[in-house]
Amino acid sequence: MNSERPQRRPDIDWLRALAVLLLVPFHSALIFCNDGIFPLRSGEDSELLSYFAGIVSQWHMPLLFVISGAGTWFALRFREPGRYARERAERLLVPLIFGSLVIVPPQVYLQRLNEGRFEGSFFAFYPHFFDGIYPQGNLTWNHLWFVAYLFIFSMMALPVFDRIGSGPGQKWISRLASISERRGGIFLLAIPIAGTEATFRAAFPGVQNLVWDWANFGSYFVLFLLGFLILADERYQQAVTRDGPLALALGLMTTALGVSLHLNGVAPSRGYSLGWTAYMVLRAFNMWFWILAVLGIGRRLLFFTNGTLRYVRDATYPFYILHMTVIVLIGFPVMKWKMGIGPRYLFVVVLSTLVTIFAYDLFVRRWRVGRLLFGMKDSDI
Q: Hey, where are the domains in the chain?
């Protein structure tokens, strides 16, 4: 552990905030798509929004896990493991429990109203929130799965990170980092992601329920570890800066290839076949290309601090907790309006963004209890 508190990386803070903000147009799009999983569906299917959501989902949550791993590297530079574990519990478990009991239930209530599976007020529905496990039942953490997974990953990885900080661990990191000194060498870090996807995705394609979710769990845990890793040696950061433009080009090329496979109806079916395995490898490298490209853009364009960053740094985590319920509350009446999908979608995106910011500023930021329940501390989610 380093006794001196390390300087924050403004690009990491900016990227975290922008990635969470992107959740609003992403989740709003799912209201008008048949693909994906979202509590609210209009019954329509916008092909444009479906492709937008599909492309964003390929790298978006993976990026947040990489950023969280990077933040953990900073946290452990000036925290003992025991203190880190206690702070993780306070910052993640308290909002997870509060959010699951208070923030998430309105999403399920409006979903059941929309499906015709319940009639009555929210207060009449609330006792039924505990009837069975979602999606057949009602009890769920919905978008707060990220918080649950992040807490588990933080605890699982803590012994590994603590060992990496030792002398032998540093030597291992140094040897591994030497790969990134060669142009494109950092792309090879996608191999463990590809191995996880090829091994588990065919059998475990589903939602983040922690129990039956080996593909997501494995891939996200690898990404969390990689986020820590690429901050542990400066050579990785140099590689991100150097290879970021190439990663962007490769990300665009592999995305175009994946989209063309779907447009031509030749994307392989899920299952343990050579075609599916190759497709999982393609998706894993595509994911990593986009992550490196975004990290590279951040290092080039977002390496600055101002008053806005100081505000959004605190707001990002509460914004994440609040945003999906706000989208559902606004989207429920708007999706039924008699107008095109485009105007309704834009209305939901803009109003949801503004209302979420307003709710954070009025009900969370200014109140000690609100700050506690939403995990607002100087930490590194």
A: 10-104+141-373
